[in-house]
Specification:
Layout: H1 10-17, H2 22-31, H3 34-38, H4 42-50, H5 57-67, H6 77-89, E1 101-106, E2 118-119, E3 124-129, H7 143-155
Antiparallel strand pairs: 1-3, 2-3
Helix pairs in contact: 1-2, 4-5, 6-7
Length: about 170
Amino acid sequence: MEERYITISFEKAKEWYNSNNSSLKEVALQAFTKKELEQINLKELIDLLLSYNELTSTQRIQLESLKNRKDLNKISAPKLLRILACYFNGEFWKKKEGIEGYFFYKKDCGFMNTYSPKVMDKYWCISSHTSVCYPTLVYFKREKDCKEAYNIMKSLGKLDALYTDF
């Protein structure tokens, strides 16, 4: 069988990789690594968030202003996490004592009052608080949203920046 070579753009490979067609997915993986194809671009993430109809006008304005920044990849990890929490929780939800809120943390940080943390990977866990509310933690209303925020932060390479030593 005669072999031929094709040139494929990263965008097209990513589209093929995310399709339901296993043959196209295989071709995309021959051109780029799985890690490259699964990595989320911050601009793409903002576009995805802007496509949701449930955004408030305040959230939409904040996301649009972020999208237009030239130094988009320099957005600090804590700020990005707060943006994701605002998006997932809605503008008016606030964690209060007596209301369950989910958060993720690095295992070696040793939070107290965490009941049955769920291990996300080798270094990270997800847990919740009901009776306490720490002002420095970013809480999510639903566990699935917390997991999604964790995955986004991980794919952007921003997790370790959440807990840097000063």
